[in-house]
Amino acid sequence: MLYAILCYAHEETVFAWSREEEAAVMEKLHAVQAPLEKAGKLGPVGRLMPTTAATTVRKGRDEPLVLDGPFAETKEVLLGFYTVDFETLDEAVAFAKDLSAVNPGSSSYEIRPFYVFHPGQITASEAIV
């Protein structure tokens, strides 16, 4: 089963790190990720830019509205994500705990199973179990 592990953080903390602090955190995170990468279980990992770089398309009365910034104003923001292939949710939880232990900038990791859709091959209703 593929899992998305979403990293939430206080943006003002993470983007205030010096280059040295950032490099130290990334080195620790890479050490946690390396065994999964070697086993071929780690998929794409993404780091999102700050919410100040976000654009939101929101349903409007007559047509969609394009807005600067994130959809919601919150203290914690989605900082990035991992895609990982685990047999069980317990494995995903253990990985998220390891990430949390070495990442001083994260406040939580959300874990969700997900499906990769390929147009014409499967519908959303067929994928949802």
Automatic annotation (TrEMBL):
<protein>
    <recommendedName>
        <fullName>YCII-related domain-containing protein</fullName>
    </recommendedName>
</protein>
<dbReference type="Pfam" id="PF03795">
    <property type="entry name" value="YCII"/>
</dbReference>
<comment type="similarity">
    <text>Belongs to the YciI family.</text>
</comment>
<dbReference type="InterPro" id="IPR011008">
    <property type="entry name" value="Dimeric_a/b-barrel"/>
</dbReference>
<feature type="domain" description="YCII-related">
    <location>
        <begin position="1"/>
        <end position="114"/>
    </location>
</feature>
<dbReference type="InterPro" id="IPR005545">
    <property type="entry name" value="YCII"/>
</dbReference>
